[in-house]
Amino acid sequence: MLELQHVNKRYGSLKVSDDLCLKVAEGHALGVLGPNGAGKSTMFNLITGDVKADSGCILFNGQDITRLAPNKRCRLGVGRSYQIPHPFSNMTVFENLLVGGIFGAEQSEKQAYSACYQVLDETGLLPKANVLAGSLTLLERKRLELARALATSPKLLLLDEIAGGLTDAECQQLIGTIKKIHDNGTTIVWIEHVVNALLAVVDSLIVLDFGQKVAEGEPGAVMNSREVKEIYMGIST
Fold first, then answer.
1. What is the pLDDT of residues 53-95, one digit of tens each?
2. Which fold has domain 2-77+154-232?
3. What is the pTM of this model?
4. How many CB atoms lie within 10 A of CB 108?
5. Start-end ranges of CATH 3.40.50.300 in the chain?
6. Which of 18, 115, 191, 204 could, after both became Cys, cross-link 211 (CB 3.0–4.6 A)?
């Protein structure tokens, strides 16, 4: 479904994406680990078009989207959440989703109402449908960030540290929701520092460092690898 071919991005002398190659099959859940500044969010920004690659190629369902505008990528089925939720605070939860459904998924108002109702139910936000987004708790804002992405009807869902800042109990609730989304067939790429949450969902892991992919494979093998122990956990081997 998603393929990055030798993607590069730099800001002056700083390489934030260094010859990055990646393949994600349809229906797969990929976890992304790496220290702060490793290029994880930049990779998402390259995939969504928020940042333009200096060189390389990004394919989505076989189509070259490297130079495609972000709104067009969204309408093809690339959806994402952001590390820090930024809802439309003075709009209700339901209205926030309708924006994604109508403008992101190009649904009619009738279609968007039906689809967004289902997303509210799926993400546990139905009781909050008519509440202003600015009054939500952190867990609810995280759920809304997820719901806003789902409202665009993504085939590929990019999650950027969506479990950050939650309690253990809240994190478990969120894991359950993401598992259901994955079980329903949505392809997921998930950046996360809460490793236990990541390992509860993903099928495989990659590790980034200084914009490079330094490890990839089955979660258990990657977590036990020298690269993860030295780069991510700070354990010398």
1. 999 999 999 999 999 999 999 999 999 999 889 899 999 999 9
2. Rossmann fold (3.40.50)
3. 0.93
4. 10
5. 2-77+154-232
6. 18
